[in-house]
């Protein structure tokens, strides 16, 4: 049902991520060997405003749209929006921000 929607605005400390899939085939059709130790990496598409503490203050999320992040091997809620696959993670579940 969610695939009929085009955009999702995450609430609180949740982050919408599109995972990067490793290239397994070249343009000419040659299959590439995949590594067993590939790491889960994704790009932040949207981020919620943050978690609310016991005093009512907002603790902002630490990532912003466009950040490339390292993700845990398991977890996240898989959803489809406009025929694209995304995952929703809590801000605290993200392992780190990757920089070049």
UniProtKB/TrEMBL annotation:
GO terms for molecular function: ATP binding; metal ion binding; protein folding chaperone; protein-folding chaperone binding; unfolded protein binding. This is 10 kDa chaperonin. Keywords: Chaperone. Belongs to the GroES chaperonin family. GO terms for cellular component: mitochondrion. The keyword Chaperone applies. It comes from Paramecium primaurelia.
